Structures are given as structure tokens and as C-alpha cells.
Automatic annotation (TrEMBL):
Domain Thioredoxin: 32-191
Name of the protein this chain belongs to: Thioredoxin domain-containing protein
Species in which this protein is naturally found: Nitratidesulfovibrio vulgaris (strain ATCC 29579 / DSM 644 / CCUG 34227 / NCIMB 8303 / VKM B-1760 / Hildenborough) (Desulfovibrio vulgaris)
GO molecular function: antioxidant activity; oxidoreductase activity
Coiled coil: none
Length: 193
């Protein structure tokens, strides 16, 4: 009797493990990969005049990615609740300054996308970490889903050379290894496009 119960228990346990594994694989999204077309996402949120200038935007919006006046845009998908994003904020600010200093205007723009964050949450993140670059909101995770539901932080380097067909040059989840290394990588990717 004990052998029968033990065998039944093992069979049920294996079945449960199989079902859990198959559901997690089926429910797992994959962020857009390098070489994939990048959607013309809507840039929701409030931008100051200097932030709009960083993206080459004029007027009150709404804006789309194709409105950005740059050949390339680096998009950091972040969440104000992500501890990695919080720890990386000072490096992102240094990256923003380096991007502004390193290149001719219009070569590379930097944009944050607050996945699941409202304007109030993004404003709190901006104020807490003194973020100088534009941060868009995505309170309903609509754009996050469109981008393949990446973890945070996630970086997309997007080529806008062909405004009608933006393409992903870099797609990476996780913190950057360092500002200098990331700048070198961005220069290489932007120069090869």
C-alpha cells in the first residue's frame, strides 16, 4: 500500500512540475532582438522644453518615436520600483552627459520608458535621482507588451535612419557593465549602421 501511495505521489508531483514548466515557457515573452523592426511607439508623458530639445521634438505632442530627430535612440526600459534601475540611475545620468558631449547633435538620443509607471511615479523617480534626460510613461504596460515584455532595466538601441522602418541594433536586459564600455559599444553600433 505504501509503495502504491509513493508511486502515485511521485506521478502527481512529476505531472505538476511538467504543467508548471510548460506554463512558464508558454507565458514567457521575449524582448525584441537585434535586427528586428522596432514599433513606432507613442511617447506619453510630460516633457520639459530642454527634454524635448534632447529628442529634437517641438510642440505639445503627442509624440511618436518617428518624431525624434536623431539617427539613433537608446531607450532604457525601467521601473521606479526596480532596485537595479535605482542603483543604475547615477550611471544613466553620467551616460546622458557623455552622450551629449561625445557626438554631433542628432546622432544619438537617450530616452527612458517607465514600464507600468504613471506620470507621478516617473516624476518622483526623476526628482529622486536627478534624471536630466526625457522619461516617458507607460502606465498600462501597453508599450512594454509591444516590446516583448522585457525585464528591467532593458536597453534598446534603435536606428531611425529609415524613419519608416526603425530597427533594433541592440537589445539587452540588465545593468550596463560601465559607462565607458557602454559608450564604446554604442559608438561602434551607431557607426556600423
Amino acid at each position: 500500500m505504501n509503495d502504491t501511495i509513493a508511486s502515485s505521489f511521485r506521478a502527481i508531483a512529476l505531472l505538476c512540475l511538467f504543467l508548471l514548466a510548460s506554463q512558464s515557457v508558454a507565458g514567457h515573452a521575449t524582448p525584441l532582438e537585434a535586427g528586428a523592426p522596432f514599433p513606432d511607439i507613442t511617447l506619453q508623458g510630460q516633457f520639459t522644453s530642454p527634454q524635448k530639445a534632447m529628442l529634437g521634438l517641438e510642440g505639445d505632442g503627442p509624440f511618436r518615436l518617428s518624431d525624434v530627430k536623431a539617427r539613433h535612440v537608446l531607450i532604457e526600459v525601467f521601473s521606479m520600483y526596480c532596485p537595479h534601475c535605482q542603483r543604475e540611475a547615477p550611471d544613466m545620468n553620467r551616460l546622458s552627459a557623455r552622450i551629449a558631449d561625445m557626438q554631433p547633435i542628432g546622432e544619438l538620443a537617450l530616452l527612458g520608458l517607465g514600464a507600468g509607471n504613471t506620470q507621478t511615479e516617473v516624476d518622483l523617480f526623476r526628482e529622486t535621482y536627478s534624471v536630466p534626460f526625457p522619461l516617458a510613461i507607460d502606465p498600462d504596460l501597453e508599450m512594454h507588451k509591444t516590446l516583448g515584455e522585457p525585464g528591467t532595466p532593458h536597453f534598446f538601441l534603435v536606428s531611425l535612419r529609415d524613419r519608416g522602418k526603425p530597427v533594433v541594433l541592440l537589445s539587452r536586459t540588465g545593468r550596463m557593465s560601465g559607462v565607458d564600455d557602454f559608450i564604446r559599444e554604442l559608438r561602434t553600433l551607431c557607426g556600423s549602421d
